[in-house]
Amino acid sequence: MNELESRVYQALAKVVDPELRRPITDLGMVGVIAGSADSFEVTIKLTVSHCPQADYLENATMNALAEEFPKDTFQLLMSVMTAEELAELKLKLREGKEPKTNPFTEGTATKIFLIGSGKGGVGKSSITVNLAVQLAKQGYEVGVIDADIFGFSIPGQLGTTDRPTRLDDMILPPIAHGVKVISIGMFLPGNEPVAWRGPMLHKAVEQFLTEVYWGQLDYLLIDMPPGTGDVAISVGQLLPTAKTIVVTTPQQAAANVAERSGTAGLKTGQEIFGVIENMSYLIQPDGSKLELFGSGGGEKVVQSLSDRTGTTIPLLGKIPLSIALRSGSDKGNPVILDSPDDIAAKELAALVQILIASKLPSSARTLKVSLT
Ligand code: ADP
Which of 80, 210, 245, 251 is buried most deeply by CB count within 10 Å? Predict the structure, then answer.
């Protein structure tokens, strides 16, 4: 590398590809650097010609070069990688692994949580989104899979309408509020209803795990479809170290169905991490708590799951009703970021700390010990 090239590389090391989250200099995206220090051309090679980040990358590259060189000394050319260059990049991203391998099997160092519920509308997606964005804010690498194939709402709650970028057989997930997110909704035109059968659902979930470029995740949160259906079983088989979090409301009827979803996880060998009660109460103007949906649902689910498993399943938290939470979900600005002082946001933040304090999958722990 000559002096000009190394100066250009140094300047461009600051430009991070927003989808791959790595400097473009690491990704083979800096092409020919031709000329001399007082007049030169730099070529940036996009991964695909329809790259949605093309404008961003062009601007970021121009700015980075302008910090190092006078403006009239350089020109930027945008081009696209060849098939061989793209293949090389994908190999690097997979860290040498075969295409379409599931990175989340035994031995994974990613903490995986399945957020499930007995029925829809109990706040499972809202909780998933808020936990995810807060973990990302605290510096963790976080992925979210919206496996609630019938009621996908995660992209909206994260405020993204982006579609994934395809690099042949590799799917780059959109990133919203620092979280990598993939949802069946991103692959459907418009707001079409989904009427898929079990094997197709299994395939979709498997694709999300094996074909999406997740990188090294600290946390993977999966918004499960309500109930005890096919997707739960598929996910159980594909993610042996995942732990289930059951969300319920305080109502007794809701608790009964929530119990069943928790026990479905047990059948596929998943550990139950704990129970979250949502919509527990409403703080009234005089400061008192109004239990709009009754009480005891969380305790009931905890008791029954503890009895069944013979272990103590904890009630992880009770989240109150909150207008800020609801409007944050509607606007795509999760309450935990938008109004951290809100009472529900504080409860959610406490839940995040519980996830952080939780142990890694036991197989990953063994691996770590044997490596040191
Ligand atoms: P699920 O994923 O279980 O179907 P959602 O997270 O989509 O449920 O929540 C259903 C609706 O209830 C959404 O409009 C959401 O904003 C609202 N919601 C969830 N939890 C609360 C809460 N604690 N306070 C107020 N509204 C809530």
Answer: 245
